[in-house]
C-alpha cells in the first residue's frame, strides 16, 4: 500500500508542477477561443461610424449600458451628460483592451480582475437594466440545467478569469518576458 501511495504522490506531484505553467496557458487559450471575439464584437456594436466613432459611441452603446435611462430620455442621446459618455467609452474600450491583455498575457492578473468586474456589471445590467429575469436567461444555481446565460455561463467565465488572477499568465506570456528582463536588473 505504501508503494501505491508513493507512486500516486510522485505522479501527481509532476502533474501539479506541469499544471503551474500549463493551467494559465490553457486558461488564456480557452478565453481566446471562446470569449475574445464575443467581447470584441460586443465592443464593435458600441462604436460610432468612421474613425471618430472611437470617441463618439453609437446609440446602441447607450442602449446596452443605460437601457432604462435611454428609454426615459426618448432615445435622445443628446440628453445624456459627460458622465454617461465616459462610462460608455470606458466600457467600450474595456471590451477591446482587457481581453487583448489576457490573450497576450500582459498585466494578466489585473486584466482578469477587470474582466471579472466587467462581467459582474454586464450581468447586473442585463438583470436590472434589460429585465433578463426569466428562468432560461437568468437561470438558478443548483437547478440541474447548465444552460442559463447569466448564472451558469458567466459563472464559468468568472471561474476561468479567477484562475488567471490566482495563477497569472504562465510562462508563455508578455508578463513572463518582462519578469525575466526585470529580475536581473533588480538583483
As residue ranges, the low-confidence spans are none
Q: What is the approximate shape? A: flat
SS field, number of helical segments = 8
User: In total, how many domains does the architecture comprise?
Assistant: 1
Radius of gyration: 21 Å
Portion of residues in beta strands equals under 5%
Intertermini distance: 47 Å
Structural class: mainly alpha
Task: Describe the protein in words.
- The protein is an all-alpha fold and 187 residues long.
- The chain has one domain.
- Helix content is 73%, strand content 0%.
- The chain is built from eight helices and no strands.
SSE map:
Blueprint: H1 2-44, H2 59-65, H3 67-72, H4 82-104, H5 108-129, H6 135-138, H7 149-167, H8 174-186
Helix pairs in contact: 1-4, 1-7, 4-5, 5-7
Sum up the structure in keywords.
73% helix; mainly alpha; L27_dom; 187 residues; single chain; 8 helices
Amino acid at each position: 500500500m505504501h508503494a501505491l501511495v508513493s507512486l500516486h504522490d510522485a505522479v501527481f506531484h509532476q502533474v501539479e508542477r506541469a499544471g503551474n505553467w500549463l493551467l494559465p496557458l490553457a486558461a488564456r487559450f480557452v478565453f481566446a477561443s471562446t470569449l475574445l471575439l464575443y467581447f470584441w464584437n460586443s465592443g464593435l456594436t458600441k462604436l460610432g461610424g468612421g474613425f471618430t466613432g472611437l470617441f463618439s459611441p453609437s446609440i446602441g452603446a447607450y442602449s446596452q449600458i443605460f437601457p432604462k435611462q435611454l428609454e426615459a430620455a426618448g432615445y435622445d442621446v443628446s440628453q445624456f451628460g459627460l458622465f454617461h459618455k465616459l462610462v460608455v467609452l470606458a466600457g467600450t474600450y474595456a471590451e477591446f483592451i482587457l481581453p487583448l491583455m489576457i490573450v497576450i498575457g500582459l498585466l494578466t492578473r489585473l486584466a482578469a480582475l477587470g474582466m471579472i468586474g466587467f462581467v459582474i456589471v454586464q450581468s447586473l445590467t442585463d438583470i436590472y437594466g434589460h429585465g433578463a429575469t426569466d428562468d432560461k436567461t437568468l437561470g438558478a444555481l443548483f437547478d440541474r440545467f447548465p444552460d442559463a446565460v447569466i448564472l451558469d455561463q458567466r459563472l464559468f467565465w468568472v471561474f476561468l478569469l479567477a484562475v488567471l488572477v490566482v495563477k497569472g499568465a504562465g510562462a508563455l506570456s508578455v508578463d513572463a518576458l518582462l519578469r525575466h528582463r526585470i529580475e536581473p536588473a533588480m538583483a
